[in-house]
Amino acid sequence: xxxxxxxxxxxxxxxxxxxxxxxGLEDTLTKAGPKTKATFNKPIISNxxxxxxxxxxFLEAFDKTFGREEYKxxxxxxxxxxxxxxxxxxxxxxxxxxxxxxxxxxxEKYYTPGKMTAARKGPEVMITISEFEMTDxxxxxxxxxxxxIIEKLDKKEYISTIKKxxxxxxxxxxxxxx
Length: 178
What we know:
The chain is an alpha+beta fold. The protein contains eight helices and seven strands; from the N terminus they run E-H-H-E-H-H-H-H-H-E-E-E-H-E-E. The strands form two sheets. The chain has a four-stranded antiparallel β-sheet. Strand 4 and strand 5 form a beta hairpin. The longest helix has 24 residues. The protein starts with a strand and ends with a strand.
């Protein structure tokens, strides 16, 4: 069974509460399933593992409530919160290449199972996630999450695309803008 660290759920819940208040969270949860409601109606433990289906159900409910454009903002917010803490301090002293070399290590902190690789070819950065089933909505969120981090580290703008290889493999392509 696929799992995700509570940190992601915590950040997404925080985004809704900061931006829309309790009413926004209630509106989102009315569109979610019972397990999701039960999870989000109590404190989220950042270092605990949660079922991925709960996270996916929450994303779908958020998308139905606030729309795709706001979902992109949510993904960028999550990336920003991740890099504003300890990761942010580390990122001041590392390169994009250094972070890419530790892609699998980073993946395992937040997801199980699955694999993540990252490589740069000239002006393009490619991140591949494999052995992990991902919804289209998750793919979009991850693309904006990765794009935010890449642009922060590289201090350049990128154009991003998603290529779904099969049920458990997704490629994210980021091409530097000229």
